[in-house]
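#structure-requests
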Amino acid sequence: MSEQGWREFLRAEGLEDWVVLHGGAATAYAAGSLTEAAALAAAVAAVPGLEEARGLLTVSSARLTVRLARGVERIEPHHIEVARAVSAVARAHGAAADRGAVQEVQVAVAARPDDLDVGFWRAVLGYDTLADDNGIDPLGHGSTFWMQDLDPARPLRHAMHIDVSVAREHAERRLAAALAAGGRVVEDSEAPAAWILADRAGNKVCIAAWPDGAVQPGAGAGGDETATT
């Protein structure tokens, strides 16, 4: 597991439908009905390598969502060909991708290193293990959770916040909507890759264009520019 896989995915051609989220690579295709979405899902399910790529299909009356890898650092070179094949099937069915509908919501559970209790959270949520510091909904419906270290020198013993990972071109739109709804920015030093916001009560949430905006398409092997398109 490393950054190389998802960076190569971002640079690859023919993946315009796909967004690289905290939870892996994802795309969404608009559908006119549940029957239409299910038919597209059946065709996508036949794509060679999809099962090995930890493919997850979510069908609704409005769209089909396809996810690969379930974790950004688990994206590997073979996912590129699987993603291209999924896009080709969608095109053959006349389905249009909607990058703005793609998102990953995560719950960050923070605690001092000695108090990190990932096993408790997996048990209480009924989640599966993906990595040592997280848990994922086996049905693919609920938010992923991950454990975050708190500085032992800080007086706070524990904390939680929400991470919202979206397509790079939609991050600022999501930010504007949150601000219009009464939120406020409390940290923007990493903008336009990410913003930390708070509601009126001080509860925090991070809107992140990362990792989808971490590398511009076509950047060199060492590129680390933030995409702002």
